[in-house]
Amino acid sequence: MSGIDMKKMQKGYDSQQRGGDFLTIQQGNTSMYVHPPCRKKDEWEPTEGVNYVPVVVHYGVGKDNAMTVCIDDENNPIVKHPFVEKLLRKRGIRLGGGCPVCKAIEDGALSDDEMDRSRAQTRYLWGVTPMEHKSKPSGSWDKVTPKPSVIFVGKSIYDGIMEIFFDNGDITDPKSAIFANIHRVGKGKNDTKYKVVAHAPTIKKPRKLGPKLRAMIEKAMAEGGDCDLFKIVANLIRNASDVEALMAGVKIDESDDIGDDIDDEEEEAEEEAEEEAEEDEEEEAEEDEEEEEEELDDDLGDDLDEDEETEEDEEAEEGEEEENGVDDDLDQLDEELKSIADGKKTKKKAKGKKAKKSKKSK
Ligand SMILES: [Zn+2]
């Protein structure tokens, strides 16, 4: 009776292990640096030389309407990727008996409605780092704290990002990056639409990422890091008996978590995502503090100089910026840097930012 809730402890631990915290794409426009392939020595043909990972999933499974990865290796070859298999072995998960959801669909064991919801569909994992955001098309790009993240998206965003590559070549070169601009309209499940185009300012002038940001991204992409896409796939996979339990509506430890994170495709509850982001920021802040505190200012300063130019360019072009827009952004980034260095939550600051901004733009 020490006051420890073992179930909660386990749940917290599991969610840390799983790494299924995907970035919620905010409404408005978000410019993102798209990461290169996360692991260097990938010799598996389907993913070698590409920077995304396709994953076949079933949505709407069981009473919880959960998402689960298809574990039929013919339908979803990624479950046999050597990196993924190695991680599954560590977790004691053995596949090879086919996918219970696919079987139920083949056998006609589901209702038409369930069948429709749960049919296998391909989603794509990409590593990205959001760089800037603007809420109105005519507005200015505001800096965001560049946190290496992962998006798990459907075909329309996938196609949009691929098109940027086809039009511009390798956009992931950190010395000369072109960002993706993902425009989200709508908030709910039925009215949300995405449009992906290349971020105009970086087409005009590709961006050189500062050394600090590059180090942060490299660290996240490394094996076991937050943006190790293979780790994420492995952590999303359930063994056949857990999938069956999910279909039968029996609670298993992790089901609600995974369901909450991703079962409604690209339209998660924003608050939840914010909370998660906050927690992650805290974690990161701690890490940063340990290793990188002194350098942080310099490097992000570098990035900022470049951004400033771009923003000025854009302002000149669009001619609708207030004079002190750049100052505001500088203040904003300063605050963010401070909060990273202090290891504090940034949410309060974000609110403060808004207040400050409205004060400033008299
Ligand atoms: Zn399946």
Tertiary shape: globular
* Fraction in beta strands: 5-15%
SSE string = HEEEHHHEEEHEEHHHHHHHH
Number of strands: 8
Low-confidence segments, ≥5 residues, pLDDT <50? Answer: 15-19, 255-362
Describe the structure.
This protein is of the alpha+beta class. Helix content is 48%, strand content 15%. Strands 1, 2, 3, 4, 5, 6, 7 and 8 form an eight-stranded antiparallel sheet that branches. It is globular, with a radius of gyration of 21 Å. The model is unreliable at 15-19 and 255-362 (pLDDT under 50). Bound molecules: zinc ion. Zinc ion is lined by residues 58, 70, 72, 75, 99, 101-102, 120.
List keywords for this structure.
362 residues, eight-stranded antiparallel sheet, 13 helices, 8 strands, globular
SSE diagram, text form:
Blueprint: H1 6-18, E1 28-34, E2 52-61, E3 66-69, H2 82-90, H3 100-106, H4 112-118, E4 121-134, E5 142-143, E6 149-153, H5 155-168, E7 180-185, E8 193-198, H6 200-204, H7 211-221, H8 229-236, H9 240-248, H10 255-262, H11 270-318, H12 325-342, H13 347-360
Antiparallel strand pairs: 1-4, 1-7, 2-3, 2-4, 4-5, 4-6, 7-8
The structure holds zinc ion.
Short description:
It contains 13 helices and 8 strands. By secondary structure, the protein is α+β, with helices and mostly antiparallel strands.
